[in-house]
Amino acid sequence: MNAQIKERYPYALPAVFLWLGFLCAISFMEAWLKFLAPGVTISIGLGIGKLVFGALNKVEWVLIIIIAANLYFVAQKIYSYRNILFIIAALMTALETFWGLPTLDKIADQIIHGGIDNHPSLHIIYVTMEVVKLIMLILLGIYLVKKHQNFNYANT
């Protein structure tokens, strides 16, 4: 094996799978499991959720920057399959950042202070965006692994 071979996606590949790990662990596991813990009330669970999802969102933006930088240096047409998958995942994160999370945080605050959720469909929309993001990241991860393998095998 040639020691001079450079990986095509040395940052994007691990960042995509790290993002997938965070997304699955928090959005699809922690989000509902915390409410099953003894002594965790709805108010406490919602407070934890606001904190955890806010932190996840910041981590997602760091990963988006890392992935975007790496993809930029492996040139492809803007409307390539790879870029479309990434752009959709990033767009879902942007929608969550500027609309979903602030709206759900307001609803959580209302519930914490004794109010009720008058917009339960907003939570379904948010979960749908998370599922779309999950699918895009899985497909992007598969794409990057295949390109990484083809690149390395072709040069050995």
From TrEMBL:
Entry annotated with the keyword Membrane: yes
Transmembrane domains' residue ranges: 12-28, 59-75, 84-104, 124-145
Source taxon at top rank: Bacteria
Protein name per its UniProtKB record: DUF4149 domain-containing protein
Keyword Membrane: yes
Organism: Arachidicoccus ginsenosidivorans
Sorted UniProt keywords: Membrane, Transmembrane, Transmembrane helix
